[in-house]
Amino acid sequence: MKMTKQKLISSLALSALVLGIATPALADEATSNATVTFVEDEGPTDPGNPGEPDPDPDPGEPDPEPGGGGGENGPLRIDYVSHMQFGEQKISGSTKAYHPLLAKWNYEEGSVYIPQFIQITDNRGTNDGWDLQVERTEFHTADDDILAGAELKITNGEVVNMGDAPSSATPATVNKTVTIPVGSAAKVMAAKEDQGMATWSYSFGEPKDRNEASKDPKEENQDVTLSVPGTSKKIANAEYSSELTWTLVASEA
Predict the structure, then answer these.
(1) Mean pLDDT throughout 198-210?
(2) What is the mean pLDDT of the chain?
(3) What secondary structure, in 3-state letters, does 153-201 show?
(4) Mean pLDDT of 12-16
(5) Residue 28 within a domain
(6) Residue 114: phi, psi to the nearest 5?
(7) Which of 195, 202, 225, 234 is deepest in the core (most CB within 10 A)?
(8) In whole angstroms, how large is the CA radius of gyration of the chain?
Protein backbone atom coordinates (compact mmCIF):
# COMPACT_ATOMS: atom_id res chain seq x y z
CA MET A 1 0.00 0.00 0.00
CA LYS A 2 2.82 2.44 0.72
CA MET A 3 4.36 1.96 -2.73
CA THR A 4 1.07 2.57 -4.44
CA LYS A 5 0.52 5.75 -2.50
CA GLN A 6 4.03 7.10 -3.21
CA LYS A 7 3.68 6.38 -6.94
CA LEU A 8 0.40 8.26 -7.01
CA ILE A 9 1.91 11.29 -5.36
CA SER A 10 4.88 11.24 -7.74
CA SER A 11 2.57 10.99 -10.69
CA LEU A 12 0.54 14.02 -9.61
CA ALA A 13 3.68 16.10 -9.02
CA LEU A 14 5.01 15.23 -12.45
CA SER A 15 1.77 16.17 -14.10
CA ALA A 16 1.82 19.59 -12.37
CA LEU A 17 5.39 20.18 -13.50
CA VAL A 18 4.57 19.37 -17.09
CA LEU A 19 1.55 21.67 -17.02
CA GLY A 20 3.60 24.44 -15.41
CA ILE A 21 6.12 24.68 -18.26
CA ALA A 22 3.62 24.59 -21.05
CA THR A 23 3.82 27.78 -23.24
CA PRO A 24 0.77 29.06 -25.15
CA ALA A 25 1.20 29.80 -28.81
CA LEU A 26 1.81 33.50 -29.65
CA ALA A 27 -0.92 34.78 -31.94
CA ASP A 28 0.26 38.39 -32.53
CA GLU A 29 1.49 41.56 -30.77
CA ALA A 30 1.48 45.30 -31.48
CA THR A 31 2.79 48.56 -29.98
CA SER A 32 1.17 51.97 -29.63
CA ASN A 33 2.30 55.42 -28.45
CA ALA A 34 0.94 58.00 -26.00
CA THR A 35 2.20 61.58 -26.30
CA VAL A 36 1.68 64.93 -24.55
CA THR A 37 3.05 68.42 -25.21
CA PHE A 38 3.11 71.14 -22.54
CA VAL A 39 2.80 74.85 -23.31
CA GLU A 40 3.18 77.80 -20.93
CA ASP A 41 0.14 78.91 -18.96
CA GLU A 42 -0.04 82.68 -19.43
CA GLY A 43 -3.03 83.15 -17.12
CA PRO A 44 -4.75 84.96 -15.68
CA THR A 45 -6.17 83.06 -12.69
CA ASP A 46 -9.36 84.44 -11.16
CA PRO A 47 -9.01 85.48 -7.52
CA GLY A 48 -10.74 83.40 -4.88
CA ASN A 49 -11.78 84.07 -1.30
CA PRO A 50 -8.93 82.64 0.85
CA GLY A 51 -11.57 81.47 3.31
CA GLU A 52 -12.95 79.13 0.63
CA PRO A 53 -10.02 77.63 -1.33
CA ASP A 54 -12.28 75.27 -3.29
CA PRO A 55 -15.79 76.78 -3.41
CA ASP A 56 -18.57 75.06 -5.29
CA PRO A 57 -20.54 76.10 -7.19
CA ASP A 58 -20.33 79.88 -6.55
CA PRO A 59 -16.77 81.17 -5.93
CA GLY A 60 -17.82 84.79 -5.81
CA GLU A 61 -15.64 87.71 -6.83
CA PRO A 62 -14.14 90.89 -5.38
CA ASP A 63 -16.30 93.97 -5.54
CA PRO A 64 -15.04 96.40 -8.21
CA GLU A 65 -15.12 99.24 -5.69
CA PRO A 66 -12.45 99.63 -4.39
CA GLY A 67 -11.33 96.46 -6.17
CA GLY A 68 -7.66 95.56 -6.42
CA GLY A 69 -4.58 95.26 -8.57
CA GLY A 70 -2.98 92.32 -10.31
CA GLY A 71 -4.38 90.20 -13.10
CA GLU A 72 -0.94 89.87 -14.65
CA ASN A 73 -0.03 87.39 -17.38
CA GLY A 74 2.84 84.92 -17.40
CA PRO A 75 3.49 81.55 -15.76
CA LEU A 76 4.73 83.24 -12.54
CA ARG A 77 2.24 85.98 -11.74
CA ILE A 78 0.32 88.07 -9.22
CA ASP A 79 -3.36 87.33 -9.79
CA TYR A 80 -4.85 89.87 -7.43
CA VAL A 81 -4.14 92.14 -4.47
CA SER A 82 -6.74 94.07 -2.50
CA HIS A 83 -6.79 97.84 -2.21
CA MET A 84 -7.14 99.30 1.29
CA GLN A 85 -9.45 102.15 2.33
CA PHE A 86 -8.86 103.88 5.65
CA GLY A 87 -11.69 106.33 5.09
CA GLU A 88 -12.11 109.76 6.67
CA GLN A 89 -10.43 110.35 10.02
CA LYS A 90 -10.54 113.31 12.39
CA ILE A 91 -7.33 115.30 12.71
CA SER A 92 -5.64 114.65 16.04
CA GLY A 93 -2.57 115.97 17.80
CA SER A 94 -2.13 112.53 19.40
CA THR A 95 -0.66 109.42 17.82
CA LYS A 96 -3.46 107.35 16.32
CA ALA A 97 -3.90 103.88 14.81
CA TYR A 98 -6.33 103.41 11.94
CA HIS A 99 -7.66 100.26 10.26
CA PRO A 100 -9.08 99.79 6.75
CA LEU A 101 -12.57 98.59 5.99
CA LEU A 102 -12.80 94.87 5.25
CA ALA A 103 -12.84 94.00 1.54
CA LYS A 104 -16.24 93.44 -0.05
CA TRP A 105 -16.71 90.01 -1.67
CA ASN A 106 -19.76 89.35 -3.82
CA TYR A 107 -21.60 86.01 -4.08
CA GLU A 108 -24.77 85.30 -6.03
CA GLU A 109 -26.73 85.19 -2.79
CA GLY A 110 -25.24 88.41 -1.41
CA SER A 111 -22.09 90.17 -0.24
CA VAL A 112 -19.76 89.59 2.72
CA TYR A 113 -16.68 91.39 4.02
CA ILE A 114 -13.32 89.62 4.34
CA PRO A 115 -9.68 90.47 5.11
CA GLN A 116 -7.62 91.87 2.24
CA PHE A 117 -5.27 89.43 0.50
CA ILE A 118 -2.80 88.85 -2.30
CA GLN A 119 -3.03 85.81 -4.60
CA ILE A 120 -0.14 84.48 -6.69
CA THR A 121 0.26 81.60 -9.17
CA ASP A 122 3.35 79.63 -10.16
CA ASN A 123 2.64 77.50 -13.23
CA ARG A 124 6.16 77.54 -14.66
CA GLY A 125 6.61 73.79 -14.14
CA THR A 126 10.22 74.27 -13.01
CA ASN A 127 9.51 74.05 -9.24
CA ASP A 128 12.31 76.58 -8.67
CA GLY A 129 10.63 78.58 -5.88
CA TRP A 130 9.96 82.32 -5.61
CA ASP A 131 10.00 85.38 -3.32
CA LEU A 132 7.09 87.76 -2.68
CA GLN A 133 8.06 91.25 -1.48
CA VAL A 134 6.33 94.57 -0.88
CA GLU A 135 7.32 98.20 -0.52
CA ARG A 136 5.46 101.50 -0.61
CA THR A 137 5.68 105.20 -1.15
CA GLU A 138 5.09 107.81 1.54
CA PHE A 139 1.47 108.74 2.18
CA HIS A 140 1.14 112.02 0.29
CA THR A 141 -1.43 114.43 -1.11
CA ALA A 142 -1.83 115.41 -4.75
CA ASP A 143 0.39 118.39 -3.92
CA ASP A 144 3.06 116.04 -2.47
CA ASP A 145 2.48 116.96 1.16
CA ILE A 146 3.91 114.04 3.15
CA LEU A 147 2.25 112.34 6.13
CA ALA A 148 5.54 112.17 7.99
CA GLY A 149 6.27 109.15 10.19
CA ALA A 150 3.26 107.11 9.07
CA GLU A 151 3.71 103.33 9.44
CA LEU A 152 1.72 100.62 7.64
CA LYS A 153 1.75 97.12 9.12
CA ILE A 154 0.08 93.74 8.49
CA THR A 155 -0.28 91.39 11.45
CA ASN A 156 -1.51 87.79 11.61
CA GLY A 157 -0.87 87.14 7.92
CA GLU A 158 -1.73 83.59 6.82
CA VAL A 159 -0.88 81.54 3.74
CA VAL A 160 -3.67 79.57 2.05
CA ASN A 161 -3.34 76.77 -0.50
CA MET A 162 -5.85 77.73 -3.21
CA GLY A 163 -5.32 74.55 -5.25
CA ASP A 164 -4.51 70.90 -4.72
CA ALA A 165 -0.77 71.16 -4.06
CA PRO A 166 0.45 68.81 -1.29
CA SER A 167 1.27 70.23 2.13
CA SER A 168 4.96 69.67 1.38
CA ALA A 169 4.67 72.41 -1.26
CA THR A 170 3.70 75.07 1.30
CA PRO A 171 6.08 78.06 1.11
CA ALA A 172 8.79 77.70 3.74
CA THR A 173 8.72 81.36 4.76
CA VAL A 174 5.47 83.09 5.67
CA ASN A 175 5.87 86.28 7.69
CA LYS A 176 2.86 86.80 9.92
CA THR A 177 3.88 90.40 10.62
CA VAL A 178 5.03 92.65 7.78
CA THR A 179 5.89 96.29 8.31
CA ILE A 180 5.79 97.75 4.80
CA PRO A 181 8.79 100.04 4.35
CA VAL A 182 9.21 103.11 2.16
CA GLY A 183 11.67 102.71 -0.68
CA SER A 184 12.90 99.22 0.22
CA ALA A 185 11.25 95.81 0.02
CA ALA A 186 10.05 93.63 2.90
CA LYS A 187 9.66 89.88 2.42
CA VAL A 188 6.12 88.54 2.70
CA MET A 189 6.52 84.90 1.63
CA ALA A 190 9.19 82.74 0.04
CA ALA A 191 9.08 79.28 -1.53
CA LYS A 192 12.12 77.06 -1.84
CA GLU A 193 12.73 74.44 -4.54
CA ASP A 194 9.71 72.12 -4.94
CA GLN A 195 7.50 74.57 -3.02
CA GLY A 196 4.92 77.16 -4.00
CA MET A 197 3.61 75.51 -7.16
CA ALA A 198 0.07 76.35 -8.35
CA THR A 199 -1.96 79.06 -6.57
CA TRP A 200 -1.47 80.52 -3.08
CA SER A 201 -2.94 83.44 -1.14
CA TYR A 202 -1.57 85.52 1.71
CA SER A 203 -4.49 86.78 3.76
CA PHE A 204 -4.11 89.97 5.83
CA GLY A 205 -5.63 88.28 8.87
CA GLU A 206 -7.57 85.08 9.45
CA PRO A 207 -9.41 83.96 6.27
CA LYS A 208 -13.21 83.76 6.49
CA ASP A 209 -15.65 81.71 4.44
CA ARG A 210 -19.04 83.11 3.46
CA ASN A 211 -20.66 81.88 6.67
CA GLU A 212 -17.96 83.24 9.00
CA ALA A 213 -17.35 86.51 7.15
CA SER A 214 -18.73 89.81 8.36
CA LYS A 215 -22.01 91.16 6.98
CA ASP A 216 -21.21 94.67 8.24
CA PRO A 217 -19.86 97.01 5.51
CA LYS A 218 -18.42 99.28 8.20
CA GLU A 219 -16.36 96.61 9.97
CA GLU A 220 -12.62 97.20 9.93
CA ASN A 221 -9.71 94.82 9.48
CA GLN A 222 -7.90 94.92 12.82
CA ASP A 223 -4.91 93.06 11.30
CA VAL A 224 -3.90 96.00 9.11
CA THR A 225 -2.81 99.16 10.92
CA LEU A 226 -1.85 102.63 9.77
CA SER A 227 -0.09 104.42 12.64
CA VAL A 228 0.20 108.20 12.38
CA PRO A 229 2.20 110.30 14.86
CA GLY A 230 0.41 113.17 16.52
CA THR A 231 3.24 115.46 15.44
CA SER A 232 2.64 114.75 11.72
CA LYS A 233 1.30 117.72 9.76
CA LYS A 234 -2.21 116.93 8.45
CA ILE A 235 -4.06 119.00 5.87
CA ALA A 236 -7.84 119.07 6.29
CA ASN A 237 -9.98 117.61 3.48
CA ALA A 238 -6.93 116.37 1.57
CA GLU A 239 -6.64 112.72 0.60
CA TYR A 240 -3.33 111.05 1.41
CA SER A 241 -2.41 107.99 -0.64
CA SER A 242 0.42 105.49 -0.74
CA GLU A 243 1.27 103.17 -3.63
CA LEU A 244 2.18 99.64 -2.62
CA THR A 245 4.40 97.70 -5.02
CA TRP A 246 4.19 93.92 -4.70
CA THR A 247 6.99 92.04 -6.44
CA LEU A 248 7.01 88.30 -7.22
CA VAL A 249 10.42 87.11 -8.37
CA ALA A 250 11.87 83.71 -9.21
CA SER A 251 14.29 82.34 -6.63
CA GLU A 252 17.92 82.52 -7.66
CA ALA A 253 19.35 79.21 -8.82
Answers:
(1) 97
(2) 91
(3) EECCCEEEECCCCCHHHCCCEECCCEEECECCCEEEEEECCCCCCEEEE
(4) 43
(5) no
(6) -130, 165
(7) 202
(8) 30
Q: Domain containing 72: what range?
A: 40-87+103-137+156-216
Each residue's pLDDT tens digit, 87-140: 999 999 999 999 999 999 999 999 999 999 999 999 999 999 999 999 999 999
pLDDT-above-70 percentage for the chain: 90
Give me the DSSP letters along the chain: -HHHHHHHHHHHHHHHHHHHT--PPP-----------------------TT-SS--S---EE-TTT-EEE---SSEEEEEEE----------SS-EEE-PBPEEEEETTEEEEE--EEEEEE--SS---EEEEEEEPPPB-TT--B-TT-EEEE-S-EEEE-S---GGGS-SEE-S-EEE-BSS-EEEEEE-TT-S-EEEEEESSS---TTTSB--TT-B-TTEEEEE-TTS---TT---B--EEEEEEEPP-
Q: How many domains does the chain have?
A: 1
Does 83 map to a domain?
yes
Does any domain span residue 8? no
**Residue 250 to residue 124: CA distance in whole angstroms:** 10
Omega before 217 within 30 of 0, i.e. cis: no
83 pLDDT above the threshold of 90: yes
The CA-atom distances, in angstroms, between 174 and each of 49, 108, 117, 128 are: 19, 33, 14, 17
pTM flag (> 0.85): yes
Convert the pLDDT of each residue in 215-252 to its tens digit.
999 999 999 999 999 999 999 999 999 999 999 999 87
